[in-house]
Amino acid sequence: MTSTPPMPIPVAAALEAASAGNTEDLLAAFAPLGAVDDWGRVFRGHDAIRRWSDAEFIGKEVTLRVTGSRTEGDTTTVSAEVGGKGFNGPSDFTFTVDDAHITLMRITG
């Protein structure tokens, strides 16, 4: 039996917050000038991430079922099955972590 290696704490916290619908905890996982890159559209800073999430992530009642992850250096890639009232299907989330916060979450196919 194989198990998924542990994720950096801010990555695990962000994924848990998203699935729980907790915007404040999602934002707390990001550095103040952290960013979300949603297929090339970049939202930098907590206010911009909140607006994006309200419209397209937590606001769409997103659920994330992690199907795999890998960490190399400061980068963690998480594969997940996305559900909710927005995009549904498989997606990859690549996180860059600096110290105790996410500096970038890139969403790709």
Q: Could you give the topology of this structure?
A:
Elements: H1 9-20, H2 23-28, E1 30-38, E2 41-44, H3 46-56, E3 63-72, E4 75-83, E5 89-98, E6 101-108
Parallel strand pairs: 1-6
Antiparallel strand pairs: 1-2, 3-4, 4-5, 5-6
Descriptive notes:
- The protein is of the alpha+beta class and 109 residues long.
- It has a single domain (9-108), classed as Nuclear Transport Factor 2, Chain: A.
- 27% of the residues lie in helices and 46% in strands.
- It has 3 helices and 6 strands, in the order ααββαββββ.
- The protein has helices at 9-20, 23-28, 46-56, and strands spanning 30-38, 41-44, 63-72, 75-83, 89-98, 101-108.
- The protein has a 6-stranded mixed beta sheet with strand order 2-1-6-5-4-3.
- The longest helix has 12 residues, at 9-20.
Descriptors for this entry?
single chain; globular; Nuclear Transport Factor 2, Chain: A; 6-stranded mixed beta sheet; 6 strands
Give a brief rundown of this model.
With 109 residues, the chain is of the alpha+beta class. It has 3 helices and 6 strands.
